[in-house]
């Protein structure tokens, strides 16, 4: 049985050779030719369907805002101490603002020594990494290009999507720049793993062909608005199998301001240390066990407690978190995901279990250090 993978839609640009099929000794005498039967030429736009006109219009309007992202890394030459820059991968991005901000996937630019952005007019610019959120597979770049060459794509509302709605993907699959594919929203609310091994929730599933190199490109609705950032495919071979995933643009819109201001996700904290999930599983803990509470933190002020030691030296569990407001907590990942929807200063209800008793704490979230 084939092992199936969810793989980032990223192509490694390592091959520069191509071959010509007809150079293998074939001549005109080797084949029999016949005149093809041609249908009538279609030159009248009125003969196109409304859907075709919609596709053409969206492509013409938005494709100039889709960029080609290349990633080069420092590598040591074989059997040598010399270091050189070598192509490490390529992907897609799109213009977020006319100030030069470009959105792409984190895995497209991860570990890059140099990032280059090529616009559809052929001009290339070295990009600055403004910030990255590996846990969400989003990176924000900036280039110094003339404002008139940078047209942001309007943002849609990913919360308004429904299964069956048409979507379009524009990207650079296999380094074939500004390729358009069309499909529908196949499902909503999917979950995938990020490069940081964190769960990305509420992901859009689509059958619009997404191949290696599409990573970081826009997923558009029928009005030409961005509704997602194409990020991964589910495939046994690494090529498109009709199952692609995109991070909803509403989530990206919350991430970008944090990357601009802090260079990373600015997630509020409870002020606790927790037990690793693998240890909790061995001890059959259901929830997230608090091992210690930071003095003066929101959790400390609310009265939460960590692991305790009795007078005989025996350790006892403290609070085991089972919910944040209405969100169930079953792991450290789900705890962090629940906290992402809040900001420092917000007051949340933390439900815990301690000594077979259910407790509720009102905790004011702190700023991250």
Question: Would you kindly provide a written description of the structure presented here, covering whatever features stand out?
Answer:
The structure is a single chain. The protein is mainly beta and 369 residues long. It folds into 3 domains: 62-149, Beta Barrel (Thrombin, subunit H); 158-262, Beta Barrel (Thrombin, subunit H), CATH 2.40.10; 272-364, Pdz3 Domain (Roll). It is 14% helix and 36% strand. The protein has 6 helices and 22 strands. It has a 7-stranded antiparallel beta sheet. Strands 9-10-11-14-13-12 form a 6-stranded antiparallel β-barrel. A hairpin with a 2-residue loop joins strand 21 (347-354) and strand 22. The longest helix has 14 residues, at 249-262. It is elongated. InterPro entries: Chloro_Bact_Ser_Proteases, PDZ, PDZ_sf, Peptidase_S1_PA, Peptidase_S1_PA_chymotrypsin, Peptidase_S1C. Keywords: Hydrolase, Protease, Serine protease, Signal. One of its GO terms (biological process) is proteolysis.
């Amino acid at each position: 049985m084939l092992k199936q993978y969810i793989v980032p839609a990223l192509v490694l640009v390592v091959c520069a050779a191509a071959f010509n099929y007809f150079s293998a000794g074939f001549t005109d005498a080797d084949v029999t030719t016949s005149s093809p039967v041609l249908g009538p030429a279609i030159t009248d736009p009125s003969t196109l369907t409304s859907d075709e006109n919609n596709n053409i219009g969206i492509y013409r309007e938005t494709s100039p805002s889709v960029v080609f992202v290349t990633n080069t890394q420092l590598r040591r030459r074989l059997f040598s101490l010399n270091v050189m820059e070598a192509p490490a991968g390529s992907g897609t991005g799109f213009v977020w603002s006319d100030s030069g901000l470009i959105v792409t996937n984190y895995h497209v630019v991860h570990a890059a020594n140099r990032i280059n952005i090529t616009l559809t007019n052929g001009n290339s610019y070295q990009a600055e990494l403004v910030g990255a959120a590996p846990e969400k597979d989003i990176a924000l770049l900036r280039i110094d290009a003339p404002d008139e060459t940078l047209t942001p794509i309007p943002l849609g509302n990913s919360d308004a999507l429904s299964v069956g709605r048409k979507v379009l993907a524009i990207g650079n699959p296999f380094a074939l720049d500004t390729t358009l594919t069309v499909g529908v929203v196949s499902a909503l609310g999917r979950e995938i793993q990020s490069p940081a091994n964190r769960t990305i929730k509420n992901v859009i599933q689509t059958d619009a062909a997404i191949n290696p190199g599409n990573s970081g490109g826009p997923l558009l609705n029928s009005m030409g608005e961005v509704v997602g950032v194409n990020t991964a495919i589910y495939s046994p071979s690494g090529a498109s199998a009709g199952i692609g995933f995109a991070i909803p643009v509403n989530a990206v819109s919350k991430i970008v301001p944090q990357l601009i201001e802090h260079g990373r996700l600015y997630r509020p904290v409870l002020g606790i240390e927790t037990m690793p999930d693998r240890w909790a599983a061995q001890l059959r803990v259901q929830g997230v066990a608090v091992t210690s509470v930071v003095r003066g933190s929101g959790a400390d002020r609310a009265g939460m407690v960590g692991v305790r030691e009795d007078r005989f030296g025996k350790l006892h569990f403290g609070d085991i978190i089972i919910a944040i407001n209405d969100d169930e907590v079953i792991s450290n990942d789900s705890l962090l995901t629940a906290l992402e929807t809040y900001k420092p200063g917000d007051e949340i209800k933390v439900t815990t279990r301690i000594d077979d008793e259910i407790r509720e704490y009102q905790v004011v979230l702190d700023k991250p250090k």
